[in-house]
Input
Amino acid sequence: MSGHSKWSTIKRKKGAADAKRGKIFTKLIRELSTAARLGGGDPGANPRLRLVIDRARAANMPKDNIERGIQKGVGGAEGERFEEVVYEGYGPGGVAILLEALTDNRNRTVGEVRHVLTKFGGNLGASGCVSYLFDKRGLIVVDPGAADPDAVMEAALEAGAEDVVVSDDAIEVVTDPASFEGVRQALDAAGFQASHAEITMQPSTTVALEGDQAASMLKLSDALDDLDDVQGVFANFDISEEEMANLV
Output
């Protein structure tokens, strides 16, 4: 899980900077609209929408903005209809990259993705070229400074979690997608509030990077994540703690 965990940690740390640039609001509005269109505007009956609302609140998105995003999806306001698209490719050192996008113009999006990949030493691949290397999983992160790791582990596993990974800066609870919401609710009921929760793509294998390849991979990941149409960037790189300290 190391590649996945490191990139998840980097994304969480850079989230505040993204919010200042307004990037994250653009992405969240699209996700709110799409989730509401596909599953309805009631978060109580739409787990996907409820998860996006939680993320929007964590990003300090105003309530009016959240409501407008939902209304776009259910038809209460005019707005674009976004299509879900997955792109696959490779980064420096042969790292597998999986991108999830919401777009109203496939030609524009694939052009932007291809440009960024090429700029940082990667390339766009055919559908299915790397998706087999990733499994969809739920990820719930609890701050170790605010909870006893052993207690979190016990509650998570009892609720059906697949794994719990404890590090100095995070307690990461991994679930299958079907159990994600139940485990999250169980942790919340036990008093362990998540600092971050998402449905993500976990790599089954990782590629070790160092030096210039590691630096290029981080720049590539950041550039892809900054594209308005890209909602999720998943990669199977692994960079040592020592190397990461020199790069971030």
Remarks:
- Strands lie at 83-90, 96-103, 123-124, 134-142, 163-166, 171-175, 196-203, 207-209, 230-235, 237-239.
- The first helix runs from residue 2 to 21.
- Residues 1-5 have pLDDT under 50 and may be disordered.
